[in-house]
Amino acid sequence: MAAEFIPEAEPLHPRDNYLNVRYGVGSWLLTRDHKRIALLYLASITFFFFLGGLFALLIRLELLTPGGDLVQSETYNKLFTMHGVVMIFFFLIPSIPAVLGNFLIPMMIGAKDLAFPRLNLLSWYIYIVGAAFTMWAVVHGGVDTGWTFYTPLSTAAANGHVVATAVGIFITGFSSILTGLNFIVTIHTMRAPGLTWFRLPLFVWSHYATSLIMVLGTPVIAVTLLMVGVERIFHLGLFDPALGGDPVLFQHLFWFYSHPAVYIMILPAMGVISEVVTTFSRKNIFGYRFVAFASVAIAVLGFLVWGHHMFVSGQSVYAGMIFSLLSFLVAIPSAIKVFNWTATMYRGSISWRTPMLYAFGFIGLFTIGGLTGLFLATLGVDVHVHDTYFIVAHFHYIMVGGAIMGYLGGMHYWWPKISGKMYPEGWARFAALIVFIGFNLTFFPQFVLGYLGMPRRYHAYPPEFQVLNVMSTAGASVLGVGYVIPMIYFAWSMRYGKNAPANPWRSTGLEWQTTSPPPTENFPVPPVVTSEPYVYATESEVVG
Amino acid sequence: MNQTEIQARESLHPEHIVSPKSYVAVFLALLVLTATTTLVAFVDLGPWNTVVALGIAFIKATLVVLIFMHIRWSSNLTRIIIVGGLFWLAILLALTFSDFATRGWLPILRMRP
After folding, report:
1. Assembly ipTM
2. Of B85, B92, B98, which is closest to A256 when you measure between CB atoms?
3. How far is it, in rounded angstroms, from Cα A148 to Cα A234?
């Protein structure tokens, strides 16, 4: 081409990275670049996070006073249902895998992209279509079954838009399956030369384990919700005893996916924490193989414990005993991770950067969430606290204290790589502190409320529970502020933040060996891996 | 396995091409088995009704997996994934039936009318 021989002036802003290589809406909506698709997911899940948060805010406002004075019980039912549906299916499950996993896995393994880039874009579109169905249900009056869709309430009694919501979740499930499939194939087939399985970053191991759950578990929830729709519309006797079905069967099928789904949320967060703890302790991970295999063990054991959600459902006591025993087993790999992170920090050169603050928060809150999980795996204790605020507190310690802390920690850690800009460290530390305080103020009182017997899913309660509920609502306000602040400074940093160097944290990960933000092809020259993932300087070499 | 290794492997073991004759034969077998399921449904076999229906379904699924999905000519890794999927199904069935099979064991439940 003649144009090649015409000398061109150096462009003012060279189009050298994935963000500025092309402009226009079409360049985003038709992109096959895993990094851009990650940002499409980021925008979508952020919207759903704040929508789910809005429902939570209304729930907490109602519970500020003992009487049901803000909303009626029916509206309250819809609020907690939509809070659960939006937060779980449209925020937490896609959060770290679809955003950080999408962005980072190809870079961490030295690849140009995921194995199936078109499938990756398709997964985002499927997610949006599924979300549209559910949003239609929200706008047209909502659904009031609880996010658990228990039968026969959901099939025979509920008046809300059960089918539309279920269809939305059914569709979104395929997005999850495609993401998991893409990750599995990518990790198996596209690793850089020299990148053996035991040289993989632990973030990749945790996503591999997560992908197994996505692929093996999600079809079951999809089919189960389809069965709910079939029974509701065609009165085919699957779950309704009056039609010859069994309502407890629904709970088996539902929790077969929905308990492992908790590990879809927490395993990627654990991957984030492994990266952050090693980087900011300047140390190799303690017990790499144990941490790696603990991820797989959590994924596998997570499929054997679902019956602990059903101890008072009419499930056989003998099955309950088996599920109780198996549930305790999950504590072992979980504890291995917590002990290994703390052992990694031991005698490390710890720096108190924002991602590390979130990692500290994660470890503490996940430990509380995990240990209270052992209370609930114990048959006798569970009967006492079943369907009380103790449960609500427990799973929020895992899902919010664990998964969202991990997500925020990861967003801060990789923000320089994603955006090419540094976030304001002072504000970020302040926000991390606010989130930690707000979280504990919101959810710790709920442990006490539950233990004292306050049931979940009621819009009114006896006056003696008010003080603890006021504390919880106040905490929710603080937590909300803690979530809004990062939104503001991340957006601010895109325009005003300092340019990020390629490797601001002096990390050893492959993703840090390319420019920030990276070029579309990730690496100008495909990398060759010659060492373990966390080879940090020895103590004597550490600066400061 | 990296990209270079995959390319090398593909050049050594090109994807198996199934003849149209085999596809048609499997398709006809599936049709015959579907018809058999329908016909058997009109015959009362007592407790064997379910066994026969599930048995035919199992044969049909095996044909689809082995021939249509090319598992017969696939790598061991792909086969492991298929076995993994079946194992997970077995987990679902076994633990669910651990409930259904033992519900009647409690004396208090047996005393109910």
Report:
1. 0.87
2. B92
3. 21
Write out chain A residues lying below 8 Å of B76, CB-based: none
In a domain, B55, yes or no: yes
pLDDT of residue A403: 97
Flag whether B2 is in a domain. Answer: no
Cβ-defined contact of B98 to A322 (cutoff 8 Å)? yes
Say if A304 falls within a structural domain.
yes
Number of domains in chain B: 2
Read off the pLDDT band of B104 (50, 70, 90): confident
Give the mean pLDDT of chain A.
Answer: 94
Q: Indicate which CATH number applies to the domain containing A155.
A: 1.20.210.10
Query: Cα-flanking dihedrals φ and ψ of residue A236, to 5°?
Result: -80, 130
Are residues B4 and A322, on separate chains, in Cβ contact within 8 Å? Answer: no
Residue A220: pLDDT band with limits 50, 70, 90: very high
Task: Say which DSSP state A533 is in.
Answer: T
Contact assessment for residue A259 and residue A341, using Cβ atoms and an 8 Å cutoff:
no
Q: Is the pLDDT of residue A448 over 60?
A: yes
Please, are residues A82 and A164 in contact by the beta-carbon 8 Å criterion? Answer: no
The beta-carbon neighbor of A189 closest among B6, B102, B103 is B6
With CA atoms as reference, the chain B residue closest to A215 would be: B85
**Portion 6-45 of B in contact with A at CB < 8 A:** 6
CA distance A73 to A102: 40
For residue A316, give the nearest of B4, B77, B102 by CB distance: B102
- Domain span at residue B88 reads 75-113
Q: Given this model, what pLDDT does residue A160 score?
A: 79
